[in-house]
Design goal:
single chain; 140 residues; mainly alpha; 59% helix; 0% strand; globular
């Protein structure tokens, strides 16, 4: 919608999403009870953090709980994923590490390498097996 104002419902959706992702820097949309927003904030963040924890278990072990949650929160708040697929979250996390997050004092010096290794393990474990012949296993 270049040049045109967004319809009100779209503006409200963007405000809602911005608040859910980063409630400290984006005000809550008007007319929604904070208790309800809190449920959404917790649900969305916990889902993303859960995917990160299960995708990068060794990396998570290298952080204190507080530092891991800060890393996950920073990713959740600041990175705009390019895929709507949950299985793409680990790849998006790698893009965040490579392109957006600078080295922090709490990060191991091999953060990106370890994350990439764990992502490769995950990608291989969910990859479809393309080695079977298209002729149902019968050889010519």
């Amino acid at each position: 919608m270049s040049g045109a104002a967004r319809p009100d419902f779209i503006s409200r959706q963007y405000a809602f999403a911005a608040h859910i992702r980063d409630p400290h820097n984006n005000p809550a949309p008007a007319g929604i009870e904070d208790r309800r927003l809190g449920i959404y904030r917790e649900l969305f963040f916990n889902n993303v953090e859960g995917f990160l924890s299960s995708s990068f278990p060794v990396l998570k072990q290298l952080y204190t709980e507080q530092d891991w949650l800060a890393l996950a929160r920073d990713f959740f708040a600041g990175h705009h994923c390019h895929s709507p697929l949950f299985l793409e979250i680990p790849r998006e996390f790698l893009a965040y590490l490579d392109n957006e997050r600078g080295q922090r004092d709490t990060d191991p010096p091999f953060l990106r390498e370890l994350a990439h290794y764990e992502w490769v393990e995950l990608a291989l474990s969910v990859a479809e097996d393309k080695t079977t012949s298209k002729n149902d296993g019968h050889y010519p």
